[in-house]
Design the sequence.
């Protein structure tokens, strides 16, 4: 578990299901995600099961604020980082605060020399956040995701392990 001034960043638990479903069913939150909005808690349960199974070492966190899970953030896959936040909490610096705690943890818990993020180029909030965290654009690719028959492009960002 990590803590910041406003947040608790912790492993996912079964009782997070409905808070997570509120995020993953919201079309605003899912506009730039790699899947369509979840149509049922059972669909969100699949994500939750993966999050709970991948907790050693803990690299991908639920973001808890004032007792409510408002998002997720951290490392998943082979050096990829990502985040999602319930739209009711957008524009409050929550993901920036979370990632400023999570990135040093990733460097301490792994031997990764670089992390990367894949973002829809139209998602200016996420691209701006990555730049604010020190990420730099590495390349772009067309037609990387097809959701409900609509193709999206990707812009890739990377952050190298800090040198001491």
Sequence:
């Amino acid at each position: 578990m990590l803590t910041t001034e406003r947040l608790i960043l912790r492993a996912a638990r079964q009782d997070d299901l409905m808070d997570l479903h509120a995020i993953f069913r919201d079309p605003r939150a899912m506009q730039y995600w790699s899947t369509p909005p979840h149509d049922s808690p059972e669909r969100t349960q699949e994500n939750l099961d993966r999050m709970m199974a991948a907790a050693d070492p803990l690299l991908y966190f639920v973001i808890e604020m004032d007792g409510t899970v408002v998002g997720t953030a951290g490392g998943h896959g082979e050096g990829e980082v990502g985040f999602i936040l319930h739209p009711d909490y957008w524009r409050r610096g929550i993901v920036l605060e979370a990632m400023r705690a999570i990135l040093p943890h990733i460097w301490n818990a792994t031997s990764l020399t670089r992390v990367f993020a894949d973002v829809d180029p139209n998602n200016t909030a996420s691209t701006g956040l990555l730049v604010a965290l020190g990420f730099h654009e590495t390349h772009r690719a067309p037609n990387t995701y097809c959701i409900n028959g609509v193709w999206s492009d990707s812009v890739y960002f990377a952050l190298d392990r800090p040198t001491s």
Q: What stands out?
A: The two ends are 24 Å apart (CA to CA). The longest helix spans residues 94-109.
